[in-house]
Amino acid sequence: MQESFFEENSSANAQKESAGAFRDLNDLYEQSKNCRKCRLADTRTNYVFGEGNSEAKIVVIGEAPGAEEDAQGRPFVGRSGKLLDKILEAIGFSRDDVFICNIIKCRPPANRNPLADEITCCMPWLNAQLALLDPAVLLLLGKVAANTLLDNKQSMGNLRGKIIRWNGYDVIVTYHPAALLRNPNWKRQCWDDVRMLRSHYDKTIHK
Ligand code: URA
Questions:
Q1: Running along the chain, 207 residues long, what does each successive block of 10 average in pLDDT?
Q2: Element spanning 61, H or E
Q3: Distance from the CA of 161 to the center of ligand 1, in angstroms?
Q4: Are 139 and 152 in contact (CB under 8 A)?
Q5: From ligand 1's centre to the CA of 207, what distance in Å?
């Protein structure tokens, strides 16, 4: 297994600072669910906080809610979500074993990529989630999630296939399920990535 180590950056501090501001995840949800910091508040049906096991050691992070997620207020419940469920099942996890959320909590119109100012507005909620959840491993789905969180512009080819040590987390990047639906040829690499996640979890977390 290859490893590469990134230096801590200022978002480590952002996460630590966020920890004290909320009692728990419920409190964070209550304080964030009516967020109107950016234009996406005007077009959303529902704020999509994220869901799963609040004790989870693995947090799965996607890009932003799509139409179905916006309608239901839950992450990854559309076609991509069904594939994500299968990916997790293939390595012996269910949605109840992990916490699933997105970089952006409200759907961008027509599923366009989130804009820089929308990301800036929304990152404090994700930082607070990570501070409260205190996971060991982050599974980042797709280039937008990875480039945003890791604050780089690297290609998927550079990002995936290894464990990246970042801000105290072991980060694994793989293809977004929506990309796999468009390009089934990438499933093999995704399978390699999530098997690496499982074996890392077994070796270091669930010994
Ligand atoms: N795509 C994402 O990135 N997140 C979701 O919640 C659904 C689709």
A1: 36 63 96 98 98 98 98 98 98 98 98 96 97 98 97 97 97 98 97 98 88
A2: strand 58-62
A3: 21
A4: no
A5: 31
Residue in the structure block whose two tokens are 């290609």: 155
Which tokens go with 73? 């207020």
Of ligand 1's listed atoms, the one at least distance from the Cα of 48 is 6
Q: Which atom of ligand 1 is nearest to the CA of 145?
A: 3
The model's pTM: 0.92
Count: domains in the chain? 1
Residue 180 CB neighbours (<10 A): 21
Tell me the Cα Rg of the chain: 16
- Which residue range is the domain that position 89 belongs to? 3-204
DSSP-derived secondary structure letter, 48: -
Residues 6+ apart with CB under 8 A from 26: none
**CATH number for 134:** 3.40.470.10
